[in-house]
Amino acid sequence: MTNSRTLPSDPALTPDLGVGSDSRRGAHAALEFHHAWSMALQSGEALDERLPVSVLGEMSKCEFFYDFSSPFSYLGATQVERITAGHELVWKPMLLGALFSSIGSPIVPLATWPETKARHALYDAYRWADHWGVRFQWPKKFPQKTVTSLRAALAVEPARIGAVSLGFFEAMWVHDQDLEDDTVVAAVLRARGLDADAILAETKTAVGKQRLFATTEEAGRRGIPGAPAFIVDEQIFWGQDRLHFVQKALEGWRPKLPIDLATPR
């Protein structure tokens, strides 16, 4: 029997609503996490080595699901274009809190962890930033409501969404700015030659709200457990520390798994 949640038909309602999703898919995603980690250990792949750009295989597609409120989404965003070079990359902003609500996860998981676990997650973020050679600082205001910035990113043409998204990520995770402030959102847009006033106005329309509603609903429907997440050939890879798996998948890698994690149950 499926335990699902139904969304209101009006996407203009509060963005904190959960998206429709079978809650059991969260368990499937967790199995993928443990299986992937086990494979990495067994194969001897080193997580502390920089990943080479993929040059093998035919052009594939990588779908990148993220929220600006996620530090590991920021770290993944700094590398995803390099890892997917030669392949199609689709940027898909989603509302992480709504996704978490739909799968029964705390809205801010970090806030529910024991202090020791939370501290080491923070250490890992700084270690990965140093490893990738990118700037990073934990913002004074955390968490932040990123609804407007996510809608703004989805309002630009697809060819520019990556650059705009990186701008929003850097505003929060490099420059310690508040994405809840529309002047910050506008500054990021203007710095990239965009009409900030028009885009901000669009984020308040039903159409602007529906775009974010749709990507968030898609994430839940396809079984994504959190952010960042990468989908290649219907394989879900959760976490920026799985980018070596993303690279291999783009080259045709598809390991045999005990269950089909890409198929909703």
Report on this model:
The chain is of the alpha+beta class. The chain has one domain (25-34, 59-244): Glutaredoxin (3-Layer(aba) Sandwich). Helices cover 48% and strands 8% of the residues. The protein is built from 11 helices and 4 strands, in the order H-E-H-E-H-H-H-H-H-H-H-H-E-E-H. It has a 4-stranded mixed β-sheet, sandwiched between helices. Helix 2 (71-83) runs parallel beside helix 5 (115-132), helix 2 runs antiparallel to helix 7 (161-173) and helix 2 packs parallel to helix 11 (243-250).
Features:
alpha+beta, Glutaredoxin, four-stranded mixed beta sheet, 265 residues
Strand and helix layout:
Elements: H1 25-43, E1 61-66, H2 71-83, E2 88-93, H3 96-103, H4 109-112, H5 115-132, H6 147-155, H7 161-173, H8 182-191, H9 196-203, H10 206-221, E3 229-232, E4 235-238, H11 243-250
Parallel strand pairs: 1-2
Antiparallel strand pairs: 1-3, 3-4
Helix pairs in contact: 2-5, 2-7, 2-11, 3-10, 6-7, 6-9, 6-10, 7-8, 8-9
